[in-house]
Structure formats: C-alpha cells, structure tokens
Amino acid sequence: MSEALPLVEIEKGGVQSFAAKVRGRVRGQPRVEQEAARILAEVREGRDRALRRITRELDRASVDKLRVPDAELRDALRDEDPELVQALKFSLNRIRKTQSQLLGRLSFSYVSDGFVVKVVPKPLRSVGCYVPGGRAAYASTVLMTAGVAKLAGVDRVVVCSPPSPDGRVNPAILAAASICGVDEVYSVGGAQAIAAMAYGTESVEKVQKIVGPGGLYASVAKKLVANDVSIDFFAGPTELVVVGDGSTDVKTTAWDLVGQAEHGEETLCGLVTWDRGLAQKVRSETSRISGDVERGEFVRKALARGFVALCEDREQAADLVNAIAPEHLEVLCEDGRGFAAKVRDAGLVLVGEYAPCAASDYCIGTDHVIPTDGYAKLRSGLSVLDFVKLNWVVEGSRDGLRRVVPSLKSLASAEGLPNHYLSVQKRFRR
What we know:
Elements: E1 7-9, H1 15-23, H2 30-46, H3 48-59, H4 70-79, H5 82-103, E2 108-112, E3 115-123, E4 126-130, H6 139-152, E5 156-161, H7 171-180, E6 184-187, H8 190-199, E7 209-211, H9 216-224, E8 230-231, E9 239-244, H10 250-261, E10 268-273, H11 276-290, H12 296-304, E11 307-310, H13 314-324, E12 328-331, H14 336-341, E13 348-351, H15 357-362, E14 388-396, H16 398-414, H17 418-425
Parallel strand pairs: 1-11, 4-5, 4-7, 5-6, 7-8, 9-10, 9-12, 10-11, 12-13
Antiparallel strand pairs: 2-3, 3-14
C-alpha cells in the first residue's frame, strides 16, 4: 500500500502546476465518458427494458417494478429506528431554516421614477434528485436535495437511488423521502438513472432539472445530458482540503481527513500548510489511524491518492487553495477568519475546529451538495436558487414612461431599430 498523504513541497511559481496535477486525477477519463454515453443511449432507446437489464448487469439486482410503491415509503418511515427518524427531522429543520432565509430575500419590489419593479420567485414544475447508494446509504442527501426542492415549492419531486441486491432501495432513504414529501421514488441508480430522468421511460416521466451528487458515472452522465435537461453542476467524488499551521491540532486534522476518506478511494483529501512539523505529524497520525479503522480499505486508498502540500508561506497557501477550488475547505490555522477572507474559490468554507466537515454534511443547516472537480470557481452549492426561477414584473405609469423616451430614442437609433422608439412614442400621440 502506498504511503498516506504523500508530501509535496510547493516551489515558488508551482501553485498552478500542482493544482492541475491534483485536478488531473478525476479529469480526462475517456473510458468513463464513453461508458456513460453508451448507457444513456441504451436507456433512451430501450427505456424500461434497458433500465432493468443494466441494473441487473451493474448492480446485480433484479427490479420488477421500478417505482417504489407509496406504501413502502410510509412503511419505511414507520419501521425505521425512531432515533434516526428524529435525526432526519432535526437535520431537515436546520436545512430549511437556513434556506428559508435565502428564499425570503428573493422576493422584493421597488418604485423607480414612475415604474414599479417586482421580483417574484416561481418554483420549477419537476425536479429529479439523484441519491447515491451502494457503499453507503445517503439518506441525508434526500434532505439536501428533495427537502430543499419541496421548500421551494416544486410540484413534482422525484428521487432515484440504486437498489441493493434484493432490488429494494435502502429503507433509510425511503424514510427520508417520506419525511420530505417526495412524490416518486425509483429503484435505479448510476448513469441509467440520469438517463431515465433526462429522457423519460414508460415508468419514469422526464423532469425539468436533475440535481444531486454521485460517483463518476452518474456525475459524468449529468454533464452529458446537460444539453437536453437542466442540471445543477458537477458533484462527483467528494473533496476535503484542510489548512493548518503550528497551532493546529494534529489529531483533529487527521481524523477529519480520515472521516472524509471513508466515502471511497476516489475521494480527494489534502492538507495545505506552511508548517513542516504539522505536515509530518499529520501524515504520521493519519497512517496510524487508518491502519485499524472501519471502512479502512476505502480510507487507505483515498489517503494514498491525497496529499500534504507544504507551502512557502500563508500567502502561497491561500493561492493554492484558490487554484484547487475544493468542495470543502476547513480552515484550522491561527486567525482562521483572516485566512478565510483570502479564499475566493471553495464550495464551503468551514472556519475553526468546531465547524467540521462532517457536521456540515448532516446537521449545521448548510447543504452538502457542493461543486467538485474545481467547479467551485464558477458557482456555489445547491440552494433554493436551483429550484426556482425569478419572474420580473414591471408596472409603468404615463409620466414614468415619458421620462425615459429621450434615452430610449437615442439607444434605438444607435442600434438601427427605429420602430422600437416609434412603438413608445405613439402612446403619447393618441
């Protein structure tokens, strides 16, 4: 087994090349893209028949009825561990409390020189939420996707999740779907689930938008269908970068990296520091912990593909973080707020040892569906903004319109569109 978190010393001017090397691990995988494209084409052509066949081949599961009966969702909620049900409700309440703050700020109106301008958020009609399964059951992802979609007012919310070998969706996922008020759940995962939601089959009616995280195949499939259906963003294998210095607690850092690494070997885990002592101690501690830990095989493989980046100073460390643009960033160094202020590109910035990544995954109230693979340079994590469109409504008065006529005439003339001006002018010659 390779060593945990290989140490790399970042030379002057070496920030961009190292970031590109980190990102190159998940990009440029033509085999994944070709296979995902093949699955999309087969489902688009074969529909339900193709879904069942591919599910048998890839998930080793036979699924007769693709849609999970509503009664099964209710039974899952009734039979689930009461403590888990309470935890799901607690987490959903925290998420909706946070997202409600944003939703409430989307609606406004103002008066401007004789015009009333209003912004009214309107929910999408249908959304498909991909919820990963397999190695772990991500009931919390139902809350972070479907729970937020229902808060936004989406009429039809669909969940697709891979079945276990018995052909059934994990009961915790079904219980979460019931709590969120999901309208439809389907026993299908991977690229084939993305195809079903994008193009529709006999059982699955297509949706307006697909959201949610997934493994490489599901995430690449989302990118491939983006010309045909709206998607949120690339949310593939998870990422955690920790920033620390001589004041950082070694065990806290090591355990946070180990905790994230248990998602799977494709997980990106890294430490960015300018303190050689911390670099050495964290590498040693993660090796010690990962030698005897649950899900150890996944942890060790992920850590072997991770890194410890030893920077020249704090400024270079900030530059490196921005170049990598990680999904999750934990800032555990001295003056964490000051360092966080230098970060432009990260999906979620967690400052201090009492805002750990694991807590943000479940119960803080922030959403854990966040851009990966550097897409945090372009947009933020999932929110109610992904489930609504903003309708602009304008009411005008005669005096208000008269005030803009001179400027309108100049602009229309400059653009060679005289009838734009005339269509307004005629209102005052009746």
